[in-house]
Input
Amino acid sequence: SKGTISILGLGAMGSAIAARLRETGYATTVWNRTAAKTEPHVKAGAIAVATISEAAQASDIVVAVLLDHASVRENLEPAATELKGKVLVNLTTTTPNESRATAAWAADHGITYLDGAIMAVPAMIGRPGSRLLYSGDENAYAITKPALETLGATDFEGTDAGLASLKDMALLSAMYAMFGGVLQAVAMMRTVGVPATQTARDVTAWLSAVVPLAEPTVAVVDSGEYDPAPGQDVAFTRTAVRSLITAAREQGIGADFLEPLVKHLDELAATGRDTADWVSVIEQLSIAD
Ligand code: NDP
Output
């Protein structure tokens, strides 16, 4: 064995991670709130324990794959004494500030903390395309890297524990906005009887062609020199997006995902910025606190 790793949480993701670690030669100690879920793991060679304290005593590396921030804190806090001196890798999805809060709690208790974000679904763990982001203690990353590399490509984002989660959530934001757009296209084409899967195929081809434009389109954001527009300007884009909304309405459907964009473009036009690059709408995303 390459050593023992304790896994807390045997949901779909925790189970895939535990199985992959065993497959690559690690011994596993497993804990799950609902004890029955440990059974298939025990059959596959894992040792099941009834408490997180026991899981911490069994290994120098403890990997948490629970539901959310609250479940991590409520379950790990009682085991802080046993976790002292251990490396805790928290792969549970949390917001950047939740990750930072757990990092601060870990530091207070002498626990070496690495936060992680999984850019994969359970079936992808250990397979091509799986990518995991990490941030927090650099030494924890160095110690756990050989094991973590068996799960997928690894990227260390920095020592601020919130950075892995921040990038995770930024990428997921782009994904959900994109899928909102896919639904809009499907809704438009459905009005003339086109099946969703057929529209999805057309959308896939179109998005694949335009995705490479993402980098050149946003390049101007770094300099902030929007006017005159290096790319499409506010006037052009406002007309284009407005016609998309009109077309949707003509077919009897709304355009809920597009309307906020037009609202921002309207604001830019109303303040005399018709000739600025349309991506300057990014400057309107800041919120006052
Ligand atoms: P599941 O719903 O399959 O499993 C959830 C796990 O969390 C179970 O082990 C469950 O225990 C445990 N749990 C939930 N609430 C508590 C609690 N209050 N106290 C103790 N344990 C609790 O989810 P996944 O395994 O899919 O997800 C786990 C994490 O991985 C999540 O943070 C998720 O965002 C992240 N992730 C998942 C991906 C996916 O595609 N599935 C992709 C990327 C990240 P019990 O069995 O007792 O209910």
